Amino acid sequence: MGSRGRRLCRCVVLVAATLLMPFAGAGEPTILDHSSSAPGKRAPYQPEVYGSSPAAEQQAAAILLGWRSEPVSLPWTSLMLSMFVKHKIAPSRAARGSALMHVAMYDAFQMASDEPSRSLLVSAAAVQVLAYLFPAEEHGFDRVLASLVRQHPNDSLAPPVRQALELGRRVGQTSIARGEADGAARGWNGVRLEWYGEGRYYGPSAWAPTAPYFYYPPDEPFAPKWKTWFWQIDHRARPVPPAFSSARYLKDLQEVIDIQQTLTADQLRIAKFWVDGSGSMTPPGHWNQIGIELVRKARLDNQRTVALFAMLNIALADTFIAAWDVKYYYWTARPITMAKTVYGVDLKTAILTPPFPSYLSGHAAFSGAAATVLGDFFPQHKVALDAMAQEAAMSRLYGGIHFRHDNEDGLALGRAVAALTLRKLGRSP
């Protein structure tokens, strides 16, 4: 038997062992339980079923090229970010979806038995979740994987390849099942928001739709009920904003007005750099891109990379839910509303005010969480990352859409969520 034949026989044994023992592989436990993983709704993956396309062939070639110099999961993270831009995904959905995808890739990596199967197993898991997140392109991702298999140095018809693809598919389906049960499907029913206004605060500092578009309904009011990964919503520990008309509140409101009236070129640059609005990678995506750049510079290995992005995106997903729990508990008005109410000032903000309550800043919370996770993996950059998080938080003050207390408490909440995530997954920030 030739060396290629021996290698394929060895792969058959190892991949079969992986299928029988789901927690074997890289030596780390999986995040989700795949022991009872079912085939799922989609048919078993068969590469020959999907026709090729120039776009799929090009994307597959780019992934293979990336694998020559960077961790196996990184090209899929980059592809996910490009989908965020293409489909103008909301930050809330970006945080949730990125966690589902990176947990799937992390688990797939742990369950692989050897290097030849690992890249395809991770890829198959990623493709499943991408198809779930972007259903309009479902079979486009299948074609990328089919093209990847055809261009892969292993024999695409060999049993180990098919078994790796099938196991990766099941890992992805487990992550999708988690997404189907997380509560994110609840929302606007076309007539009204089912619990919009239930128990909400009404008063002179209550949230109201803002100029210039007066978007309504507010964004993701059901998110406080979404299922978190690790963070537990504790009403007793919920951050508290300064009371309306208190000295702190009035001081922070006046600060927003003063800054907008004397905005410097550098402050405007910061506000626009971190705006991450519609059609961008979004705030969670922005921090994933920062993570990609750090991984490439440090030449991080496969295991640490999949762990980093799993922890980063779990922290971002939980931070979003925690922040929106605070927002929809207090329903606080934005500076543009309160400048008019309190001082009679028609505030002209540097960036567009988002359509949801002010306290606390989700952008600051995302940034505090991301900088904490990235700083744990790259301690040599911790000071710089913390400074970036501070700047990202301040960008919302410079933009005229948040108070200083929104930003400070948002940073603190994000850092707390990230610290818990790191501890839960075996690190001690």
Concise synopsis of the structure shown:
The chain has helices at 3-20, 54-67, 74-86, 91-111, 115-133, 138-151, 159-180, 247-261, 265-273, 282-298, 302-330, 335-343, 362-377, 382-398, 404-424.
Can you describe what's shown?
With 429 residues, this protein is mainly alpha-helical. It has 15 helices and no strands. The protein has helices at residues 3-20, 54-67, 74-86, 91-111, 115-133, 138-151, 159-180, 247-261, 265-273, 282-298, 302-330, 335-343, 362-377, 382-398, 404-424. Helix 4 runs antiparallel to helix 11 (302-330). The chain is elongated. 49% of the residues are buried.
Q: How is the biggest beta sheet arranged?
A: none
Order of helices and strands: HHHHHHHHHHHHHHH
* Helix/strand class: mainly alpha
Which term fits the overall shape? Answer: elongated
Total of helices:
15
- How many strand segments? 0
The residue ranges in which pLDDT falls below 50 over 5 or more consecutive positions are 1-25
If you compute it from the alpha carbons, what radius of gyration comes out, rounded to the nearest whole angstrom?
23 Å
Distance between the termini: 51 Å
Overall pLDDT confidence: 88
Helix content bin: 55-70%
Strand residues, percent: under 5%
